[in-house]
Amino acid sequence: MAEPSPEQQQPPQPPKSAPLATDKPKNPIPAKVRSKIFAHKTREDVEMSLLLGCKLDARKFVRCFFGITPSKQQDQILMAASAPGAHVTVRSGRGIGKSSALAWLILWFVLFHKDCKAACTAPSASQLRDVLWPEIQKWHQKMPNKFKKEIIILKDRIIHANDPNMRFAVARTARKDKPEALQGIRATNTMYIVDEASGVDNEVYVVAEGSMTLPGARIILCGNPTRKDGYFYDTHAKKGVCENWTKLAFSSLDSPFVDKKWADGMRAKYGVQHPFWKIHVLGEFPDASSDILIPFEYLERARTTTDIKPEGERIAGLDVARFGDDRSCLVIRHGGVIVHIQVWNGYSITDTAKQAMAVSGLYDTICVDEIGVGGGAVDVLRATGRVRVVPVNVSMSSSDPQFARLRDQLWFATRDWFCGNNPVRVAAIPQRDNLIAELADVRFGYYQGTGRVKVESKDEMKKRLHYSPDIADALTMTFAIPYSARGGAMGLCHTARSMGAIFSTRPMISGSESPVQPPCAAPSIEFEISPTPF
Questions:
Q1: Of residues 210 and 141, which shows the higher confidence score?
Q2: SS3 434
Q3: What's the CATH superfamily of 53-254?
């Protein structure tokens, strides 16, 4: 057979690009064949056939009802959760579209299943109220009108208009002191959705186990893998448990919804060994390092805590820097809650003191690191006569023989605030990545010979992390005096046992100076949080 001429040869075709989410999928069945197949079927028959397909597969529901194609990561969640009796556990970094996938599942479940009940829970009410429920409302508005009318969204419930008592989804906060969040959900079709599952206490799962083992019950656990223990971790790694779960793991780097610049910024800021990068970007459980001072799971618990009222003495901590890369930081803690954070740099000592005085109405006492340039700030603050000023020399010997220096003692007092074995949560912090990242990778060890505890120095941290933990240092200053939190007096922190031996307690100057005014402009303020969101 003769070879085709060059004119007859077809040039190589470029590979076809993947269809966009907005592209309409082409029907693989030719129009003539399709018309013969459906010739004997009415419009109602075709519609019923499509609805049946949507009922059996949540992915088809999303494509038919919203006209979009889920991402590969979302597609895997929907596919795994569609089957009755599905046990799905999803650990992920940020930005994979998890909230949208959960919203689709809830709408799909209530719309297509009779005698159905779903429980949606998370460690904090804000996660349900401010994240999941608005996402459900957004997609509900995009449903075809005929079906949108069948779903009614209330403050903490989603009901089917035709059977509101037997077809609904309910939002319940999961807390250790109220572990019944997932209890009492019984129906022919049941579904349990746990968002931020790593932060839900084991007791909540234990109480709910009876309901969650109903025949055909769907259970979907999602969240950042913030700790290497607990029920969520067991579903991924513990023998005898994880075999019963469909395990999904997603990295932010593989998500089409994550800006590459954000990921590059996180890598440059924290490095690939930092817990923040591993947990919130890669979706991996943190290393169980024995020399980490404050385990990441306690920081995440404090970040998601919203039920602590600011009570007791209002204490400010000021870490002073004059010029250079280091920043001056002011942290105000009101009992168990951080109510204000302010960061700036490039200010003179006088202007730094003025900046602290500008918000003096938010605190009763200010503790200042007086080493180096901090001593000047102490003098300026005292001269105003408006607040109680406590100079703190962190290089002095500790009043507790297990610590070498006061700085080590203050860091462990901070650790106790996050990790204390109290019946209620005693710490609530703003959702600031800067603060969490600085606290999450502080290391400690022991002095050779004496065996006393030693927290790595600020210079050592800066060399290892490539940034200075200025906000965290300001927070440690607030533990230089007694404090109280919700649930009654929590006692004295370590350093308060012998305050006279630790602090300079010269009386404040009570002068008649006019109130110190803040700087005219503050172009170098990095960020400010006030009042607290809790």
A1: 141
A2: helix
A3: P-loop containing nucleotide triphosphate hydrolases (3.40.50.300)
